[in-house]
Design a protein that fits this description.
- The structure is a single chain.
- The chain has about 160 residues and is of the alpha+beta class.
- The chain folds into two domains: about 10-40, no CATH class; about 45-155, Beta Polymerase, domain 2.
- The protein has helices spanning about 25-35, 45-65, 90-110, 140-145, 145-150; strands spanning about 65-75, 85-90, 115, 125-130, 130-135.
- Strands 1-2-5-4-3 form a five-stranded mixed β-sheet.
- Helix 2 packs antiparallel against helix 3 (about 90-110).
- The longest helix has 17 residues, at about 45-65.
- It is extended and about 60 Å long.
- The chain starts with about 25 loop residues before the first helix and ends in an 11-residue tail after the last helix.
- The relative contact order is 0.13.
- The model has no long low-confidence stretch (mean pLDDT about 75).
């Protein structure tokens, strides 16, 4: 029987001078000091790319027989995405298949880090493709959440006084 190998010690980075006055452990001091370099803001892809990806998403959903597919333009209205696609599937299996096919097609388009929430058989599956967020609902859940009403363009109209 072999003797166990000693574990390598992790080296923590040296704290910044501003962190020396912060009480707590070395790790807490590093966190309190903040990042060493300024964080660059993410740049949005060109509108043509977003439009192309929207077409890929809608086409994939229509190929999988999604019902009531709508797209909402949220550019300038939401910080988390530029477009929102909402569609309905009739069964868990159909919604899961739509999500899986969509991730495959987006990977073919170069999007590798697409996140899926709720794909394990729920009434609502969310697919985060960066600038486009896709919601796949069962009919009852779609009516209950009413995202079209929440994010629809009619909410941007100023109320009339008078």
């Amino acid at each position: 029987m072999r003797a166990p190998r000693p574990r390598a010690k992790r080296k923590l980075p040296k704290p910044l001078p501003a962190a020396d006055k912060t009480p707590g452990s070395l790790r807490k001091k590093i966190v309190a000091a903040g990042p060493r370099k300024p964080v660059k803001a993410e740049t949005s892809p060109p509108p043509e790319r977003v439009q192309h990806l929207q077409g890929v998403i809608v086409g994939s959903l229509e190929d999988d027989k999604a019902e009531d597919v709508i797209t909402l333009d949220l550019a300038g209205r939401a910080s988390f995405c530029d477009r929102m696609v909402i569609a309905t599937g009739l069964a868990d299996r159909q919604i899961t298949a739509m999500a899986n096919h969509l991730v495959e097609k987006l990977a073919q388009e170069g999007l590798k880090r697409v996140r899926i929430e709720g794909a394990g058989g729920s009434d609502w599956v969310l697919i985060d493709a960066g600038d486009i967020v896709v919601h796949l609902f069962k009919p009852d859940a779609r009516a209950a959440y009413a995202l079209e009403k929440m994010w629809g363009p009619e909410l941007d109209v100023e109320p009339r006084v008078g």
